[in-house]
């Protein structure tokens, strides 16, 4: 149930002093092969952290041997010096892995991917980070996935891991993310591993397919980060050749599981909300309408108050331009937890029939009557605890 | 300092029982002429309340004699029955105004504009509303603007009025709006009056010009309502002929004043925040970037916490697509209350130099280094009181 569940991987997570709490804050995941296939999906934010710039370049050849991840600082908006810090980190990981492997086991800096998360606009404590790399490489072991998953936590309250077991091969994954959590892809770091035999092109295509309908459909607070990274490493250690669609299905299972865990642990949330749009003209239209609702603060505060205030849903739906989502506003139906409170844009069943207090999970369904496509976007309610967590200290 | 400040207008605001508090909830503003020029700007939400549908039709001939406004119910998403309620309300206003005026003073229902505000998805108490119309028409007087401004309040804590005095003529206005407050135009009701002599085309053009840079640049909580309406009535009673640009300037003054009052009274807010984008490629790009920042919950909670967390500003800027706002992300500068905390996307002056606690007003400036256009969008911080007001009861 972790990145070390598939064969051919070692990992570790150590405390390097980047987090003021003294908790684990540096993780290393190593792919021992025989393959070194790698792919990555990175933030669509135009402001990109140094590790994102580095990883895009390093993974462009479809290969990587290791990922180093740190919490305690995003290394975003830190200029050329920040980029040099990331470069130095990758070099250091490569050096200590090469030394540990001995002759014939050399790793180059270009085979080390880097992920960072934490406050934007602050330089990392590089000596502490490099010390953490030494300790983490020293501690690498074949059951280290759980320690690594803990080391990448920031405001997360639980480590997030997932596993898809197949016949003779598997996909394991870990993720962090609790705030600044919105798609493009979802704001978070994730490492997914597999022991399947796949080439770089299939790995890249399968990873993009999996993230498009999972991490990209989480929108906790509408805020897209500078550091989003999902990395896939394939070791081929199972010896099982896997087709792209099979791999994509297993990756989707793991990414969906991790996405659901991100929503469940979102900062300050008391409800997890699935907004499903049905009978849309196409999938993009369905996603656009769902996202308009998941980004409405009035909708999110109403759910916090256990109030099925469907006027706030319909008014959010109405903000999506017609060229993005063609539909007739007069035909809109809205169902909340099974009760069709809005029918043909008018009053439907009594809103008092909706029970929102019984369960953390809330299901909203919006029927556009405009086609056959559908999509679900997950979000959270907007609570006092969210405001507290995001105003009381910098993160 | 109200809609009855210009010559040729009477108004009243009465308590009709639509609000459970017993406060004033029905307002009538009458234009006694000699002109009956009118224009309106209405919500761009595709889900439109019955009074919006009515007013769009009624004002299409450029003439109106009266506006009736109610709080205590939006009459949105109420279907054909809700539209019949609005129609009936306009007819009733026309009937009682005609009866009061006597022969030769007849008013048609098509000369009565209607505005409603309150909870979506609930029918109005029509007998109470019509009773309120009787009382309001009975109470109309040339100093009634203040009472009308109070009658349109919902979660507003203060009545909002403004006046632009010119040589021999003037523009007066009132507005309500505290929640579901976002542009397209800003979510609110406003009636603006003038005794200038203007024709319908000039009135319409001047009103659109004025709202575009005022109400449309308020974004308190990102939520666009179904009921937004700004109505302009021109009586011509001053006898002063006014050119369109002169009228637009006076209207802009009044609308800007009212907009600032909306921001100052936004639900639960503790800071009013002006986000100014400078050196953009064009004005639309500047507005798009400013709006991305004003819609970031992480930015808004940081300001509530008096935390100049500029990483949340830069990351929001980075979400605007390049085709919308061309700029080089590596050149971004951000200044908060006069301190340039981010320079060329990197660390600038120490963030500790920024004082956010001293004043309710906060000024953020983002320099795109991409042209010469600029724009300011106003918003508020995201506070515990906002969450409380919007979760504790339906509105």
TrEMBL record, chains A, B:
Keyword Transcription regulation among UniProt keywords: no
Residue(s) at site: Involved in the stabilization of negative charge on the oxyanion by the formation of the oxyanion hole: 117-118
Active site: 187
Keywords: Acyltransferase, Amino-acid biosynthesis, Arginine biosynthesis, Autocatalytic cleavage, Cytoplasm, Multifunctional enzyme, Transferase
Reactions performed catalytically: L-glutamate + acetyl-CoA = N-acetyl-L-glutamate + CoA + H(+); N(2)-acetyl-L-ornithine + L-glutamate = N-acetyl-L-glutamate + L-ornithine
SUPFAM superfamilies, sorted: DmpA/ArgJ-like
Subcellular location: Cytoplasm
EC number(s) given by UniProt: 2.3.1.35, 2.3.1.1
Primary localisation category: cytoplasm
Major enzyme class: transferase
Pathway of action: Amino-acid biosynthesis; L-arginine biosynthesis; N(2)-acetyl-L-ornithine from L-glutamate: step 1/4; Amino-acid biosynthesis; L-arginine biosynthesis; L-ornithine and N-acetyl-L-glutamate from L-glutamate and N(2)-acetyl-L-ornithine (cyclic): step 1/1
Function: Catalyzes two activities which are involved in the cyclic version of arginine biosynthesis: the synthesis of N-acetylglutamate from glutamate and acetyl-CoA as the acetyl donor, and of ornithine by transacetylation between N(2)-acetylornithine and glutamate.
The protein's assembly and partners: Heterotetramer of two alpha and two beta chains.
HAMAP family the record matches: ArgJ
Family membership noted in the UniProt record: Belongs to the ArgJ family.
Record-given protein name: Arginine biosynthesis bifunctional protein ArgJ
């Amino acid at each position: 149930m972790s990145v070390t569940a598939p064969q051919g991987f070692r990992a570790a997570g150590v405390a390097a002093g980047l987090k003021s709490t003294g908790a684990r804050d540096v993780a290393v995941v190593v792919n021992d092969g025989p393959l070194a296939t790698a792919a990555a999906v990175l933030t669509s934010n135009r402001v990109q952290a140094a590790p994102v710039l580095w990883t895009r370049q390093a993974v462009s050849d479809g290969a990587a041997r290791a990922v180093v991840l740190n919490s305690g600082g995003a290394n975003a908006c830190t200029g050329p010096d920040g980029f040099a810090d990331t470069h130095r980190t990758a070099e250091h990981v490569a050096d200590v892995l090469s030394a540990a492997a001995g002759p014939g086991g050399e790793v180059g800096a270009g085979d080390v991917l880097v992920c960072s998360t934490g406050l934007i606009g602050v330089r990392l404590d590089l000596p502490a980070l490099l010390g953490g790399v030494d300790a983490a490489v020293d501690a690498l072991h074949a059951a280290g996935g759980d320690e690594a998953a803990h080391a990448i936590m920031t405001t997360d309250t639980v480590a997030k891991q997932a596993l898809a077991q197949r016949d003779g091969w598997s996909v394991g994954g870990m993720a962090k993310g609790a705030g600044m959590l919105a798609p493009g892809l979802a704001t978070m770091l994730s490492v997914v591993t597999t022991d399947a035999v796949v080439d770089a092109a299939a790995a890249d295509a399968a990873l993009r397919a999996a993230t498009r309908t999972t991490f990209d459909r989480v929108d906790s607070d509408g805020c897209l980060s500078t550091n989003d990274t999902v990395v896939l490493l394939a070791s081929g250690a199972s010896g099982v050749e896997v087709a792209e669609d099979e791999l994509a299905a297993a990756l989707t299972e793991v990414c969906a599981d991790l996405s659901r865990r991100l929503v469940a642990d979102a900062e300050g949330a008391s409800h997890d909300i699935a907004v499903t749009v049905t009978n849309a003209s196409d999938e993009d239209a369905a996603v656009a309408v769902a996202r308009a609702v998941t980004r409405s603060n009035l909708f999110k505060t109403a759910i916090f108050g256990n109030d099925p205030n469907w006027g706030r849903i319909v008014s959010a739906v109405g903000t999506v331009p017609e060229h993005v989502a063609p539909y007739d506003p007069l035909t809109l139906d809205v169902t909340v937890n099974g009760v069709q409170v809005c029918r043909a844009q008018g009053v439907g069943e009594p809103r008092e029939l909706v029970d929102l207090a019984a369960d953390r999970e809330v299901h909203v369904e919006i029927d556009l009557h405009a086609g056959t496509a559908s999509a679900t976007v997950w979000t959270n309610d907007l609570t006092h605890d969210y405001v507290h967590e995001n105003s009381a200290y910098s993160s």
